[in-house]
Specification:
Length: about 160
């Protein structure tokens, strides 16, 4: 099971992409709003109880100062994947990217691209799939489907160019 958390409801559109990827790969998840700045006690409880509640990976999305992924990572030994979210108060997203990317030694947060929640969902599945053979098979099939999509696009390009 994967925990998907975000700082506010405005992050939902981006973070839904992680949920969609997990659904496609048959991985269960929970999704909640946990604000590092507005509900710090809730964030502390969420991070501290994550493993005992059965979570295997946490995906944390945040915009602006983007403290949620790092703070949650400081509370658990579970892998945390940070999703920098381009928010209305953001500095072109760089504040979020750097806030998540530049973690101190000992508190790693895997970081995906700005608004890259789909990749966060896939990465979470891959982390779990490292020890789950059935999920690994689904991931292998997913990767194979990417090759097929490129082959179809290549044929479409050739048709457009008249080759």
């Amino acid at each position: 099971m994967v925990g998907i958390i975000m700082g506010s409801l405005s992050d939902r559109k981006v973070m839904q992409l992680a949920a969609d990827a997990l659904t496609e790969l048959g991985v269960s998840y929970e999704m909640e709003i946990v604000s590092a700045h507005r509900t710090p006690e809730r964030m502390l409880e969420y991070g501290a109880s994550a493993r005992s509640r059965g979570l295997k990976v946490i995906i944390a999305g945040a915009g602006g100062a983007a403290h949620l992924p790092g703070m949650v990572a400081s509370l658990t030994s579970l892998p945390v994947i940070g999703v920098p979210v381009l928010s209305s108060n953001s500095i072109d997203g760089w504040d979020s990217v750097l806030s998540i990317l530049q973690m101190p030694a000992g508190v790693p947060v895997a970081t995906v691209a700005l608004d890259g929640a789909r990749n966060a969902g896939i990465l979470a599945a891959q982390i779990i799939g490292a020890s789950d053979p059935e999920l690994a098979k689904r991931l292998d099939a997913f990767k194979e489907s990417l090759k097929e999509k490129v082959a179809v696009m290549n044929e479409e390009l050739k048709n457009q160019l008249g080759n």
